Here is the input.
Amino acid sequence: MLVPQAIRSKVELGFVAPFGSPWLTRIQLRSGVKIVQLHYYTHPVPLIGFRPLSSDYVWIFGSPSCFVRPLEPFSHWAMRRAWGNSTADLIIHSANGERDWKAAYQRFTPDREEWLEQWRENIILFFFAPSWPETAAGEWDGHLEYRSRWIWAPLILVVFACNLREFMRRRFDLIPVAVTVFTLLMALQNVIIAEGRYRKPVEPLLLMNLVWILDSKRVGTRRRTAVSNEPSGALRG
Here is the structure.
């Protein structure tokens, strides 16, 4: 199933990337700018015999997280780059494969303090940022999505507390282990700017983990009740 998209990415990007190019979002985080302006030039791939759809593009790219106030109405906090109009200009030729992307990425070298500040911003965005584009539609479900984003941070704390209790009892079932690891990976990553939509894969898993917790409590209560109702002779036997 990945072969058609792999071929298309080779034609359009100059390198195989069936899940899309990871470089644009990585460059935006590392650069510290609000807007990335990309001058992109495509070249035919003689080996395949296909031609790109266009010879050149000019893209204006910015993460939705650069334009939101994730803590409203309680705070007007926003990531630092949201308050300015900083830009970075990139020139990419598909004939060079990933070489131009890597060179652009290596142009920006944040120090340790900058890395930590971006990491802290990402954690806040992961927990509280609205999920674009559905919250921008203006429909009732978009408003519901925007307001319900506040439930996920408390739910993560509750789920993690219950999972930790199970881990301390040396119970390592698949659901709590997988949900805990995946949520931590998504919440603590500092490779790209976090967005509310990146939280979406975690949300149904948290609900599934909550069901697992409630079911475990129910089963445990039922077992304790069954043991307490057994005759004393049976217990001695």
In short: The CA atoms of residues 40 and 198 lie 26 Å apart.
